[in-house]
Design brief:
Order of helices and strands: EEHHHE
Number of domains: 1
Largest sheet: 3 strands, antiparallel
Distance between the termini: 46 Å
Strand order of the largest sheet: 1-2-3
Structural class: alpha+beta
Radius of gyration: 16 Å
Low-confidence stretches: none
Number of helices: 3
Oligomer: single chain
Number of strands: 3
Mean pLDDT: 93
Shape: globular
């Protein structure tokens, strides 16, 4: 994997995830990757707030979208699905290593 891509995700409850995503060596536009992650997460959050979807349903939809996108690429399906698996595993590793912080809570 190439240089990591720093990304900060903040939940609706203000929990903050500082992530260093491992990047594939053939990544052509890291800044666009960063922007697309933010756009996708914002869209998902907006839809979940609107319809209060279960987290498992959200993950299932995102996995299905990744599978469809991998299959849409004009290449052998074994190549694109293998790449999708590798990228997903690397992204999960990055998230598991993230620094997580939450806002102070409690009563004064």
């Amino acid at each position: 994997m190439a240089r990591p891509l720093p990304f900060t995700a903040v939940t609706d409850t203000a929990e903050k995830f500082d992530i260093n995503f491992p990047m594939h060596p053939a990544t052509e536009a890291p800044m666009r990757v960063h922007q697309l992650i933010g756009d996708i997460l914002e869209t998902v959050s907006r839809e979940v707030r609107r319809d209060n979807m279960a987290n498992g349903d959200v993950l299932q939809a995102m996995a299905m979208a990744l599978a469809v996108r991998a299959r849409m690429i004009a290449s052998h399906p074994d190549t694109t699905t293998g790449l999708a698996r590798d990228l997903l595993e690397a992204a999960i590793e990055g998230v598991l290593e993230a620094q997580v912080s939450a806002p102070p809570s409690g009563q004064a």
